[in-house]
Write a structure and sequence with these properties.
- A seven-stranded mixed beta sheet has the order 3-2-1-4-5-7-6, with helices on both faces.
- It is of the alpha/beta class.
- α5 links the parallel β4 and β5.
- The longest helix has 23 residues.
- It has eight helices and seven strands.
- 41% of the residues lie in helices and 21% in strands.
Length: 241
């Protein structure tokens, strides 16, 4: 069952805005791929809340033997992912999930890698801690978990810095892509910048960087590290030893 706060209209808006609103999206994808070990044979990877499938397809393209289980709460997102996979769809499986539930966290076989982009911040702190433990259990030895997501600044000044940087990056991407500010203006009009919201948001529940790193270590991950950060977004990873 999908989160009732995330509708198919939300999915459509995200597909339209993601190119503009995801900071350094291409660099993020390349960074995530660089952290996944070269597979031996045809192991299985998991993409949690795959969205329109950009990261799923990038894994299928980069790692020729890799199979990917792409999960999402939105039927239209999974349909878009399957279409984007094209002739690589023979190595793709998809399934509807509710990220807060746990049944989907027991994969059919130990996983080579688990990735997630802009999804885990929808869980509260306890939910993130449980998810990290479940991912660790689902990975095979040497398997990697890579997470790209929003984080919660510690201070109000930090929140302003993140919000300003996110606006600036979205504005830059809109101009670079289209030569106009239309994409940025829609980003602003739809209140997409979490750091501009006046109070708590029922859908977005980011945690602090230090908390995320500590929770990954507590879940048993080795080599926990922060690899990239911009505009309140981070990429972090850990390895199952």
């Amino acid at each position: 069952m999908a989160d009732p706060l995330w509708t198919e209209d939300t999915s459509a808006a995200f597909r339209d805005l993601a190119h503009y609103a995801v900071p350094e999206r291409e660099l993020q994808t390349e960074t995530i791929l660089s952290l996944i070990p070269e597979p031996d044979g045809a192991p299985l990877a998991m993409d949690i809340c795959c969205g329109a499938g950009g990261l799923t397809v990038a894994m299928l393209e980069r790692f020729q033997g890799l199979r990917v289980l792409a999960l999402d709460g939105s039927p239209s997102m999974l349909e878009t992912t399957r279409a984007a996979a094209g002739d690589r769809a023979d190595r793709l499986e998809t399934a509807i999930i509710d990220i807060a539930e746990t049944g989907w966290r027991i994969p059919p076989e130990p996983l080579h890698a688990v990735v997630s982009s802009l999804a885990i911040h929808h869980l509260d702190g306890a939910g993130k801690r449980q998810l990290f433990a479940d991912i660790h259990a689902a990975l095979r030895p040497g398997g990697v978990f890579v997470m790209a997501d929003l984080v919660e600044p510690v201070t109000l000044s930090g929140r302003k810095v993140a919000g300003d940087a996110w606006d600036a990056e979205t504005r830059r991407r809109a101009l670079d892509t289209d030569g106009t500010l239309e994409g940025y203006e829609r980003f602003v009009a739809e209140d997409w910048n979490y750091y501009r919201l006046p109070g708590p948001d029922p859908l977005d529940k980011p945690s602090g960087v230090a908390e995320l790193l500590d929770w990954l270590r507590a879940a048993g991950f080795d080599g926990v590290d922060l690899h990239w950060m911009k505009a309140g977004h981070v990429i972090i990873s850990g390895v199952r030893g």
